[in-house]
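dumping the sequnces here before i forget
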Amino acid sequence: MESSDAALVTSVLHGDVNAYGALVSRYRDRYARYAVHMLGNREDAEEALQDAFTRAYRSLARCEEPERFGAWLFRILVNRCRTSGARRVRRGQTFVYDEGALMKASQEHPAERTMWREEIERALGELSADQREAFLLKYVEDLGYDEMAEITGVGVSALKMRVMRACDRLRTLLREVHNG
Amino acid sequence: MGEWGRTTLELIVEELRQPVRLDESFERRVMVRVRRLYAQRRRHGVGGWLGGFTRVTYHPGWAAALAASVVAMVTLGVMRSRPAGVATVSPREPVQFVLVRPDARSVAVVGDFNDWGLNDTALVATNHQGVWSVTAPVPAGVHRYAFVVNGKEWVTDPNAPRSAGDDFGLPSSALVVEDSTK
Amino acid sequence: MNSRPARGLVTLALVSAALAQASAQDPRIMPRLDAPSRAAITALVDSARAQGLPVEPLMEKVYEGMGKGADGPRIVAAVRSLTLEMASAHRALGTVASADEIKAAASAMHAGVPAVELGKMKKQSGLRRSLTLPFTVLADLVSRGVPVEAGVNAIKSLVGAGAKDADLNKFQRNVSGDIDQGAPPAAAAETRAKAVPATKPEDDG
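..and the predicted 3d for all of it:
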């Protein structure tokens, strides 16, 4: 049976450093997606995620709800991505999707799919960091506004505004691409 | 493009929700960093059973921080559950140890926070007309300690709880230090 | 006072020199223990780690034994006893217990408090309330002669009423003072427990 987050955290705090490997394995891919989209390239995303895991380990004793380790780690990652500086889009290196999913998609519409992905990524890069963060948290990570407010420290109404503006901007940018 | 029958937003979200995979070397790289931290902490005596020495030094400011004559328990707010162990960096809190022994020639404090005096880490108390005291930073957590009078007599703190446990025939006192940063 | 402490302190001086050159594997004490004791302690620590128990208290016990002049087999026995007590405490308290709580619970068990009682207290108190100090005070009460049941009831009622750690400290000092003055331990604990005012959760700070 898979150990709970709380059990793994407890093991780590009691000296079992390998238990942390299980937590890294559990959240590695789940949170890589956010970092990749937020930062725009794989290298910066991996660096941010590594830092987040390291910071979480260093502060593990302050994780007050070990059963919610994942949420706590995500907060650290979101903060880390914010301080990561400007988004650097490196075309051709941006997407690190699951190979199986990609294979299927590529077989269906290989060229269109690749182009579409690149345009989305470019459009994301056009958003302000605040808007991109709000959009990704709301629509890609599927968080509620209360959760987003907890993570970002920003009020719900401000977050709603950012999401709305991000959506409008993305629609405009991607329609332009499509139509143009 | 027929897919435009769906909203643009739906299409964007669908694409962005595609899983992302990092290769296994990522995990290895993280764990290299983590193990390095783990090793550093053990070397600095933060935890781990092969931890290094921690020499306790006296800082005059701490004495003023605690006015109580005997501070066997440091309780600064409601104590929270604080998992401890290798990854724990326990903050140190100033604790004043006091023993009234007008007849003593010397008084030292030994406990698990200074490896029971191993490597000359015993805390040496100063004499104020028979009231011996020393203030030292002690990591947050639960500790066992005792006074050593005249270099040979082990004495528990009369104002602190007794510590139950195998004490090798020489009783110890219990000390619970709260983390004031929480 | 027997001669062991003096011998222990003399040993410490000798140990210090050896420790300065100790290997990375055995920085503090292992070179001073005989080989069978060293092997036994290593095995006990490994076993504790495998069970998810905090291992630092075990090493602290080794240092304590050395500081107090105990020989290798005596130290091994103490470490083994502590390992068993912490394992029982860990099972009783569950994975949410902190290392300090496990350590304090082991102490209470050594004094005679059944693990099951400690587990019930943990369950009743919830995750937020650390029971490190309540367990420590309970161990003290029982070691001073307060019957286990009376001690458990007193601590339960105090924690249940929202007593702060400062209240528990005061309670412990009062009970020990009463006992020192000749009061029956059970009566002292029961009477003093009634004197601690109930605290509303919002007053806890």
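Confidence is low (pLDDT under 50) at residues 89-107 of chain A.
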